[in-house]
Every structure is written in C-alpha cells, then in structure tokens.
Design a protein that fits this description.
With 612 residues, the protein is an alpha/beta fold. 62% of the residues lie in helices and 7% in strands. A hairpin with a 2-residue loop joins strand 6 and strand 7. Helix 19 packs antiparallel against helix 20 and helix 23 packs parallel to helix 25. It is elongated and about 90 Å long. This is AAA+ ATPase domain-containing protein.
C-alpha cells in the first residue's frame, strides 16, 4: 500500500497510539485482517524519535520452526534491544511464543517500549490495547478513488479490501465484490496479504472448531446482533448456549467479531469481508437454509414481543427495531425468495405494522407487503393482517385506491372499518368517515384494542371535525384522547393529537397555546424519525411563528418544510387544514433575508428553540 493510501482517515488513530506509548511501555494494536495495523505501526515508528527497531514477524514460514518462536536470525536481535521503541509487527502468527519473550525483554530492560501489532492482545501486565476499526464512509471512498482512479463502493472499511478491489478494477473486472475478486498476486509483502481470502483464512486457521462454526452461523446477521440473538440463531448442536458465549468472546479477542456498546447494550458484528468468508463456510457445512430459518424464528419472535409491548414502551422499541432493521430486511428477503415461505414474509411484514407506520418506513413496508401478498394469495388470518397493514400504509402514502383494494379483501372488522374511515376523510366523505369510525370504535372496545385501535380513532374523529369546521368539538375530542394516551403511555398517538390540537387552538384564536402544542408534537415526532410527521411539525411551527410575529425564523422553517415535503415526492398526504394555516402565514419567496435553508435536523432544532 502506498504511503498516501495507508493514512487516509487515520490521523486520529496515529495520535492515539503515540499518546498511549507516552503512558504505557507496551501498546498492542489489534483489529481484523486488512484493517491496516502494520501500516499504522510503521507510520508511528517513522515519526518516533530516538532508537527504533522494527521486527517483521509476519513472514510466511512456519512459526514452529523458528527458534524462540521468532523468525530466523531476528531472534538474536531482540536481546540486544535494551532501550527505545521496539515494533513487533505481526505477533499473532506465534503469539504464545512471542508473549513470554516480550515480557522477559521488558523486565530486563526498563527503558524499552514495545509497540506490537496482532489480531489479538498479548495479555501481558501493563499492556494497553488499541482496537483499530474500519475506515468511515468518507475515508473509505476517498481511499478507493485514490487507488483505483474511479469512484466505487467498497464492501467494508478495511484498507486492504480497498487496495485489492482497486487492483481488480484496474484489471477491468466488474465492481461487484466477491472474495475471489479481492486478490492481487503482484502485491508486495506477505503472501497472505495478496488476497482477502488468504488474509482472512489465517484468522480462520487460528480458531477452534466451535469458533469456526459460530463464525459461519453469525454470517446470517446483517448489521450486527446481541448475545441473545447469537444464542438463539447460532446455538444449535454442536454448540450450546455456553459454547456460543465462549466462542463469541474468543472471536472478539481474535478480532473476528467487532464488539460495540451503545444505549441498548452490547452488540457484535462481522466486518463485511469476514461475513462473506463465513457465509461461504456456512454453505460448505450445508447449514445455510437451517440457520436462515433460525434467524427468521428469532426475529419474528422479537417482532411479536415488540408488537405486544409497543403501547407502553414505544421509544425504546423504536430504537431497538430500527437497530435491527438490517436483520429484518435480510430475513424478509430470504422469505420472499422462496414461494414456500411467502406466508412467513406476510406474517413478519404484517406484525411490523408499528415499525412501518409509526417510524417513517411506510414506503419500505408497503414494498415488502406488496411482494409478500403477491407471492401467496391463500386466505387466512396471516394474510388478513398483512392486508390491513398494507392498507394502512397505502393510505398514509396517499394511494387511496390501493388502500381500498386491500380493504375490499379484508372483509368486515373494526380495523378494516377504522382504515376505511381514514380513506373516507381523505376522499372528503366526512359524514361517512364519522359513521365508519363510530362502528370501528365499538369493535375496538369489544376486542379491548386500545392501540392501534381505540386511541388512534381520536385522530380520525378530530381530523374529520376540523375539516367540517367544528373546532370546539375537535378540541373536546382531542383533550379526551390526550388524557387517555397519557394514562396508557401512548406517546405516538398523543403527538398526532397535540399536532391537531395546535391547529384547533390557532383556529380558535390562541396562537400562543397553538405554538406550545405544535412544539410538543414535534418533540415527540422526532423520537420516531417519521419524515412526514416532522415535515408537518416543522411547517406548523413555522407558520405559527410567522403568524405570531417571528417572521424570519417562521419563513425559514416553512422553506425547510417545503424541502422535506418535496423529498417525500408526493408519497404522503398533507393536511388541508395545515395547508390553510401555512397559506395564512404568507411566506415570502425571499426567504429570511438570504439565510441558508436548514436541513431537517437543523430545522427541527430551530423549531424547538434549541439553537442560539
């Protein structure tokens, strides 16, 4: 790898290693194969002052043939290194032999500092371990463009992946990535770095049988997994739950799995190149269809739990299921690829109504459900639930004819009547909407369906009354609904009721109250990432601000909202009442004296008065 390429995006890591060497006598840089440990260590060595000795342990010979576990005549050099910085590059090939030698050297030479690179730590006293991770998206794109002379998308952030992919692109090979294409026989350096398969294979050889099985099975995960998922998906014979836990810990130590901590706990993932390698081994083991089935079983179980607990724990479940969205997409694609499992796709797609409808994924959910419903037309409760979810999403996206087609197949029932009422409001059949939602509410009560049934019916009634001009009636309904939502812990519906109450209070002449409710609604809508709700919220706060005298910020927010609606490209219906209020604000085309229009995140912060 050339000197420029090796350090794109690595300035912070170089500084971190140098700072660690000022604090500790032994620093080990670990990370997956191809992440650039050697390049980083040699850069640190080149910048270090004083005596520096670099020992390359990453030779191609058999470590068992080397005296003291070190390559050839270099073993004799080590006792002479008594001070300065000793760089030991590639310790993982003979780590059991190297670690005690390093310990003895450091005990005998108190002025010696050691910088080691390895796929796992040396586990010596006083060792400071720095885990080198993948390059970020911008750095990996810049690296590949520098190396290949063209823009392309590397599969992961490993510099070696980018280098080998660049070589393939220069050979005129297609940009779609396979492990076989990630090779460059003419690359200088150790032979195991001439192909990604060989580099990863060295890590695979260092694993036990249990670790290799877990690696293969974990390749079915997309975007990461937690320990519970590992045990449920990967824990079949010959692995039990304890064996899975041990193998996970070992693969983290060997830099095969990347461990990360976030607000929802500890998660693990395979770098994409290592995931591809594991998937190949899973195929060789003949386990791919079985592990994919276990993967589905785990995530349909999780989806059902989220559905049951959604009403009282919405924000937590939103965060959890958005985190699992790559896995949900993956298992849906696998179920849709086989006509024999299309009903499972309908089951999962219908169960995830809360994720699609409440969390800004309406178009994506509608797409999956369209495919699942087309793949299998056998009637039954699973299909009916999928149809109802599909109708909900079609209505939210403005495809009223599509929603009506789905509802025609659903038959009678309170949820079908509820969704028919939503369509009726959008069609302008306001009296029909009130009749339908009244029927739906009776059914929701009988079935004890608080959400998405009874509570969200308040949104339909209030919307209809506002459209009819019955503002005082709408306010009464909205306040009752908000109180019930508070008792039930239902924040998503309450945010919609607050948004409507803001409209109603403005129409009653109280712009101050209206602005407070509009901000309350927007504050909660932000927690769910629903772009349509955010666009409506920013527009309403902008209009109310402008109408209350804050013309500059108001017009800026209205301009931002217009951009957000444009991004939706007509895939969401805008409330006529909201449009009327915004029109009264009379936004000037010369937006806020030339101030730049903020993006969605900045606009929400401005609307909530979180900016200076």
């Amino acid at each position: 790898m050339d000197g420029f390429a090796g350090f794109i995006g690595r300035d912070a890591e170089i500084g971190k290693v140098e700072a660690a060497l000022r604090r500790a006598r032994l620093v080990t840089v670990t990370g997956p194969p191809g992440v650039g440990k050697s390049t980083l260590a040699r850069r640190v060595a080149a910048r270090a002052g004083g005596r520096v000795t670099v020992v390359d342990l990453d030779d191609d010979g058999d470590p068992s043939d080397l005296p003291g576990g070190l390559p050839g005549d270099k073993a004799a050099e080590l006792p002479e290194v008594t001070a300065g910085l000793l760089v030991l590059d590639g310790c993982d090939r003979a780590i059991d032999e190297i670690a005690p030698r390093v310990r003895a050297l450091m005990q005998a030479n108190p002025r010696l500092r050691v910088l080691a690179t390895s796929r796992q730590s040396l586990t010596l006293p006083g060792e400071q371990v720095i885990v080198l991770t993948e390059l970020g998206p911008d750095a990996r794109a810049a690296l590949l463009e520098h190396l290949a002379g063209q823009a392309a998308e590397p599969p992961d952030g490993l510099p070696l992946t980018a280098e080998l992919l660049a070589a393939a692109l220069r050979r005129g090979e297609p940009a779609d990535v396979t492990l076989d294409r990630l090779a460059d026989p003419g690359r200088p350096g150790p032979s195991r770095h001439t192909s990604m398969r060989t580099a990863i294979g060295a890590s695979h050889e260092a694993c036990t049988a249990a670790e290799r099985i877990l690696w293969a099975r974990a390749s079915v995960f997309a975007g990461g997994f937690d320990l519970e998922a590992a045990q449920r998906v990967c824990g079949a014979a010959p692995l039990d739950e304890d064996a899975v836990l041990g193998a996970v810990a070992a693969l983290v130590d060997k830099s095969v799995l990347v461990r990360s901590e976030g607000p929802l706990g500890v998660r693990f993932r395979l770098v994409e190149s290592l995931r591809m390698f594991g998937a190949e081994w899973l195929d060789r083991l003949g386990e791919t269809p079985y592990v994919q089935e276990w993967h589905f079983e785990h995530f349909i179980r999780l989806a059902r739990q989220a559905e049951r607990e959604w009403q009282g724990g919405q924000v937590w479940w939103y965060q959890r299921m958005r985190l699992e969205a790559p896995n949900l997409r993956q298992t849906l694609e696998w179920r849709l690829a086989d006509p024999g499992t299309a009903e499972q796709a309908q089951d999962l797609g219908g169960t995830l109504w809360f994720l699609w409808a409440c969390c800004g994924l309406q178009r994506e959910g509608a797409g999956y459900l369209d495919r699942a419903l087309a793949a299998r037309d056998e009637p039954g409760p699973v299909r009916t639930k999928a149809l109802l979810t599909s109708a909900w999403l079609d209505g939210a996206l403005g495809d009223l004819a599509g929603a009506e087609r789905r509802l025609a197949e659903c038959g009678d029932g309170p949820r079908a009547a509820h969704l028919a009422a939503v369509v009726a409001v959008q069609r302008g059949d306001l009296r029909g909407a009130l009749r339908l939602i009244g029927d739906a509410r009776s059914g929701h009560r009988r079935q004890s369906d608080m959400f998405p049934g009874f509570l969200s019916s308040y949104v339909v009634i209030a919307t209809t009354l506002l459209r009819m001009g019955n503002v005082s009636g709408a306010v009464t309904v909205l306040r009752e609904g908000r109180d019930l939502c508070g008792t039930a812990g239902e924040s998503w519906t309450r945010s919609h009721l607050d948004h409507l109450l803001a409209q109603a209070e403005y129409l009653r002449g109280d712009a101050g109250q209206a602005l407070g409710h509009a901000r309350d609604a927007l504050r909660v809508a932000r927690l769910f990432g629903d772009v349509a709700a955010l666009a409506a919220g920013v527009e309403l706060v902008g209009a109310l601000s402008a109408l209350s005298g804050d013309v500059k910020d108001g017009e800026l927010l209205l301009a931002s909202a217009a951009g957000m609606w444009a991004e939706l490209d007509g895939h969401s219906l805008r409330s006529p009442v909201l449009a009327e209020i915004a029109a009264q604000a009379g936004a000037s085309p010369d937006v806020a004296a030339g101030r730049p229009v903020p993006g969605p995140e900045e606009a929400v912060a401005l609307a909530l008065q979180e900016t200076d």
